[in-house]
Amino acid sequence: MPLALLRRMRTKRPDRGSGLKIPLPVGAGAFSCEVLDPVGQALGGVEVTVTETRGAARTVAKATTDPHGLFLATLEPGQYTVLLTGSGLQPNRLTVDIAPGQSEPPRRVQMEPSQQLELPPPGTWLFDPPHTAIRFIARHVGMANVHGRFTRFRGGIHIAERMEDSRVEVVIDASSINTGNNTRDAHLRSADFLDVDNFPEIHFASNRFTWRSGPKWTLQGPLTMHGVSRSVTLDTTYLGAVNGGYEQELRCAALATAELHREDYTLNWRNMLARGIAVVGPTVKLELDIQAMYRNHDTPTPPE
């Protein structure tokens, strides 16, 4: 049934070719394409690079498809290589010949998902603190960024037999915040911000794993900070699993990011400059750069 539905979706797509007329420079031609995702829907944001096939292989056009999956370039007569690339997708390479005055209907190009990395085996994986970082970026006075990190945390990943049933949990010591400035760090620990005396921990526990494409996953779950819980989404890239480290133990890695809004967690401290610019911006970018070790009776304890 899904395959039949997919076929119907594809057959119902409008033909964009016959109505596409563009003015061409004298002696030039045009190349256009409509890029589709693996299920046949228009795919914006795919990078398209057009390169001469002869001579110095010079790049003559480079852009991304529009929200309708379309790309168009006027070109001098000759032969070109067109390379299409996108996150989580296999590169697609075409060879096109451009003739003077030629404006062919858009060529439909369907992208395929990139080969998925082998997933880590089921079991418990514990964060390796010396090789894991929890960082954040906040806007400062409307033009610069403050970079910081939390230096004390614990957590791990439970990989289930079915990856979508897996779980991640992270517990962060809020007082370990470090931005490289003692005065600022003391202020961030105070009741104006994290209020670490009353809320000593920041906690995240996922309740959903969703595969997007290639190595890309989405993790969702409640993040509790400053006594408030809000559901957040972590955009996650799985980086693979290898044997290596202290004693060649099995470990895996991932990079996850999220954008948090301070006021969602009642971190409402405000101070404005004379020209009406907030000293601290309303959003914070959170980044978890994780290495985790497979946990069994032979797993070594990471050094402090």
UniProtKB/TrEMBL annotation:
Residues 100-124 are annotated as: Disordered. It comes from the Bacteria. Residues 124-293 form the Lipid/polyisoprenoid-binding YceI-like domain. InterPro entries: CarboxyPept-like_regulatory, Lipid/polyisoprenoid-bd_YceI, TTHA0802/YceI-like_sf. Gene3D superfamilies: Carboxypeptidase-like, regulatory domain, Lipid/polyisoprenoid-binding, YceI-like. SMART domains: YceI. This is YceI family protein. Belongs to the UPF0312 family. Coiled coil: none annotated.
